[in-house]
């Protein structure tokens, strides 16, 4: 259970009376019976309890998917052609192998999360340990095994990427194809079960609409990333054409825009947060002054009623 120290702020952003804010309040200590808060001002205080993690599984998956793609694209742009140093080229190829596999591993987790949301009514969250074990541990294990099996496979004379000799390139395309097939299978089951839920007598439309949006974005994301690497197969082969190179480059450059559109512009919660941020910037709220002095920090302590000896203390 997560405890947060807050006070009631009557800002202009929330026109319906205000909102809870953590500004100026910190949690000093917390146990099973008491929570001690310290605030630098006097107001109406409270301790909010969250019975579930504030950052959801979907948010974690999307965050690390973007991190993997960002690092992979950054390494690709800065190091793919630096073949002068053999050791440095191997490091670049290994990082590309790791983080591109990581992006597909997080896509697999997104498919599993979607399956749990639709098929499993309860226990729809994945523990962070399992997320990181699959998202980063699985790609790292593949890279380590590949490097031990054929260390010369990392880096070529033309590009800092995986060698085509001895079929070493399939240490990347093998897991990628497996993940794409698994996710396609999961999406088929998900869409089928989603159609069944919509045809039921009493469907939970609010929850089903969320799952439907999640399904559409996940399928679109898989199609774009999967299609990109379909052309990427021909990118580093001798018979590759200029057309394949342009298609691979165009699709690769659109990944960030696609993720921003799907997970930011098309997400109502994110749009509302953008609106709040813009309203704060465009119309800064006027400072409100208390009749009490705010120079000395006051402390709030959980127990349910105000301490009559200290107007700044609160016990819940």
Summarize it:
By secondary structure, the chain is mainly alpha-helical. It has eight helices and eight strands. A hairpin with a 7-residue loop joins β7 and β8.
Tell me what the structure shows:
The radius of gyration is 26 Å and the shape is globular. 55% of the residues lie in helices and 11% in strands. The strands form three sheets. It has a three-stranded antiparallel sheet with strand order 2-1-5, with no helix packed on it. It has a three-stranded antiparallel sheet with strand order 3-4-6, with no helix packed on it. The longest helix has 34 residues. The chain has eight helices and eight strands; from the N terminus they run E-E-E-E-E-H-H-H-H-H-H-H-H-E-E-E. The protein starts with a strand and ends with a strand. The C terminus is likely disordered. The protein has 316 residues and is mainly alpha-helical. InterPro entries: GAIN_B, GPCR_2-like_7TM, GPCR_2_secretin-like, GPS. One of its GO terms (biological process) is cell surface receptor signaling pathway.
> Which percent range fits the helix content?
55-70%
Outline type:
globular
Oligomeric composition of the shown chains? single chain
Supply the number of helical segments. Answer: 8
Q: Give the N-terminus to C-terminus distance in angstroms.
A: 16 Å
Membrane topology: Multi-pass membrane protein
Family: Belongs to the G-protein coupled receptor 2 family. Adhesion G-protein coupled receptor (ADGR) subfamily.
Subcellular location: Cell membrane
Pfam family, one: 7tm_2
